[in-house]
Specification:
The protein is of the alpha+beta class. The protein contains 21 helices and nine strands. It folds into four domains: 145 residues, Beta Polymerase, domain 2, CATH 3.30.460.10; 87 residues, cca-adding enzyme, domain 2 (Orthogonal Bundle), CATH 1.10.3090.10; 100 residues, no CATH class; 41 residues, no CATH class.
Length: 382
Amino acid sequence: MKINADWLTASHTQRVFSLLTEAGFQAFAVGGAVRNTLLDMAVSDLDFATDATPQQVIALAEKAGLRVVPTGIDHGTVTLILDGQGFEVTTFRHDLETDGRRAIVGFTTSMTEDAARRDFTMNALYCAMDGQVLDPVGGLSDLQAGRVAFVGNPTKRIAEDYLRILRFFRFYAWFGDPEGGPDPEGLAAVAAGADGIATLAVERIGAEMTKCLGAPNPAPALAAMAATGILARILPGASDKLLAPLIHFEHAAKVPPRWQRRLGAIGGQDIGAALRLSRADMRYITALTDGLAGQADTAELAYRQGADLAIDVALINAATTLIAPPPDLLETVERGTNARFPLRAADLDPSLKGREIGRALRRAEERWIASGFTLDRHALLT
């Protein structure tokens, strides 16, 4: 099979290929770029694999006048900089030692050995300079079937890096067949290896969860996480029961996915610490929780807190009640977002002093909101 893609024929890509192949080395694009191209999905990162050692790659690049950054040289990775764009080039590897979090690797000249240490078969697809796809572990058939399958023995792959438990669900959310369900052998292995999650850094868990929740439809993946007990391990108190109806209402309202909205829907105890969210994200989740508990209508929320939060509250409420949001949801949000309170302190009776000014402004603002933002300055002052 051959692929044809803009990234493959781009001059920078071809230059990286040529740098290696003209010196007699193997060179392949590998992983996400190949997988996503075959699925007709966007490609964001481009990684190369080669039998050249990192030192050989560095020497070739410097001879060609390219800047080289040793981003992960101990693991065989260097980054070549072409006109400000980075391209990671990694030497074919095999694992020497693993402890469930990190690996000590050795270099090899065998693409087959390199493929054997990768996590999922769909990530072990290699593309040559001419677009020919090489499939050493059967990833093409799995990709076409929407089957997220571990390379080789799932239990062994998980023991090498326990983050693969969460990656299994994340990749199923993005690339799996929701009707077929997760790969049974893989699902059994992640359930059996669940204790290994305790060895992972919270930041890595949070990154995987937010990526998973950002998929077009993560509901089947979260249901599988809940069924295996994985969800309760990483986010105690969370529940996936609102996720499927939430996504249904998202589609009906033609609202794009937001992992923050989905996270607000599944809930959980001490979310910020459990997933090591940024302060900004945690402030948003707190505001979302407050909005769900409050009495403000959609337009008022949009006025006070912005469009995203108003939409998220409306959709989660719809998922909770199983009552669709009104068809004019987005228009209502836009009306609230664009509303501008027409009064300032200088407009009030000059006899008002101190806190009286604030109270008067708040009363006027409440009247204005209750009117649907229709009362003008004159009406509010009379």
